[in-house]
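Example for tutorial group B:
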């Protein structure tokens, strides 16, 4: 267990924001977490951190950052079912890689998503036609409301699009220490997502295994998304808006090329990237005092820290985008990243 005072978080967030925290403490087990939560200066105000790939540090944080480093990758089988239990601090992509190498099916479409296993259910990570809700069996963690370790079932997590109970009722008071996924040794390939279909059409083969999907997803993601090790970013900064069918129809009358996907019989999802690009922000750059922030030139949904940007600069640009998109389309974009210290 490590506890430091006035700690710099630059290496602990993929946006590369140079922010500090009053306390920084890392835990490698549930016991260590309890010791930390017993300390009044930590319990009073804390924020749990995984790999910092979905977080924006805005100002100096005057509480404690609790860094989840609980290890663990253990699989048990029952027939073709595989229960894969991961420690909250285990790297998500490493879990996907090992699972695919073991010929388990279920999470290969979620390859190359940065972050920790413990954070994966928080925003119900999803990509290429799969969300963690499709495979999550349970999530265990410490509930500060009941002061107990509890195990939540898939239904208890109340998953939605980039949403779960950990972002609503249990926000800030449930520390996920372990997750269990229900995977399968049965071959079940999900390649109906358009980007995957296009990829396999182009290479002229059909996917035969989880490894084929994994390789395709990694290749597509590497060609589309900036690597945070090269350019600071937090992936998609905004959620794709879900509109009522009536609101979507009004927009479609004005913008015939607006892509749209049915969510259910009354709701439609539209790409935030389209709105941001049409609002003229793709490739936008904002500079202040020799610092620079912008919108990625190839992916309008990704805000990038191109030169020592502060958290406030990122937030200002995000607010500028939200205001313009609202003015032009009547749609209020919701941030996907968690803003800390604001
Ligand atoms: C290049 C890039 C690509 C991305 N692509 C995708 C994508 O395709 N799909 C997608 O869904 N996301 C994507 N993301 C977002 C991000 O990878 C996920 O949200 C990921 O799950 C965040 O994990 P983390 O450990 O970095 O969480 P952090 O950023 O550390 O934390 C995120 C939030 O979860 C909370 N949290 C973290 N750990 C715990 C815990 N153990 N218990 C309780 N709360 C916790 C934090 O308090 C915070 O509110 C991408 C990000 C980047 C940088």
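The residue assignment follows.
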């Amino acid at each position: 267990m490590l506890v430091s005072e006035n700690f710099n978080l630059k290496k602990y967030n993929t946006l590369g924001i140079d922010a500090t925290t009053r306390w920084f403490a890392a835990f490698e087990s549930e016991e260590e977490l309890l010791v930390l939560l017993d300390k009044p200066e930590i319990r009073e105000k804390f924020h749990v951190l995984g790999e910092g790939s979905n977080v924006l540090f805005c100002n100096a944080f005057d509480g404690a950052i609790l860094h989840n480093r609980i290890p663990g990758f253990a699989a048990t089988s029952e027939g073709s079912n595989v229960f894969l239990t991961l420690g909250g601090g285990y790297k998500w992509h490493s879990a996907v890689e090992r699972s695919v190498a073991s010929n388990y099916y279920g999470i290969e479409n979620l390859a190359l998503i940065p972050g920790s296993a413990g954070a994966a259910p928080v925003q119900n990570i999803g990509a290429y036609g799969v969300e963690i809700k499709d495979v999550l069996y349970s999530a265990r963690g410490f509930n500060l409301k009941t002061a107990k370790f509890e195990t939540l079932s898939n239904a208890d997590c109340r998953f939605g699009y980039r949403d779960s109970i950990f972002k609503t009722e249990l926000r800030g008071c449930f520390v996920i220490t372990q997750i269990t996924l229900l995977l399968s040794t049965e071959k079940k390939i999900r390649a109906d997502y358009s980007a995957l279909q296009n990829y396999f059409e182009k290479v002229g083969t059909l996917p035969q295994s989880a490894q084929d999907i994994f390789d395709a997803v990694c290749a597509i993601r590497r060609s589309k998304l900036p690597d945070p090790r090269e350019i600071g970013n937090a992936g998609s900064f905004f959620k794709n808006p879900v509109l009522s069918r009536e609101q979507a129809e009004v927009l479609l009358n004005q913008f015939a090329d607006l892509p749209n996907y049915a969510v259910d019989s009354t709701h439609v999802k539209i790409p935030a990237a389209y709105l941001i690009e049409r609002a003229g922000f793709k490739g936008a750059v904002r500079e202040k005092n020799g610092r620079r922030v912008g919108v990625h030139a190839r992916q309008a949904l990704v805000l990038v820290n191109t030169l020592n940007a502060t958290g406030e600069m990122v937030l200002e640009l995000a607010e500028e985008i939200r205001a313009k998109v609202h003015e032009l389309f009547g749609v209020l974009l919701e941030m996907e990243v968690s803003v800390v210290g604001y």
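The chain has three domains: 2-68, 73-184, 232-340. Compare this with the pattern of hydrophobic and polar residues in the output above.
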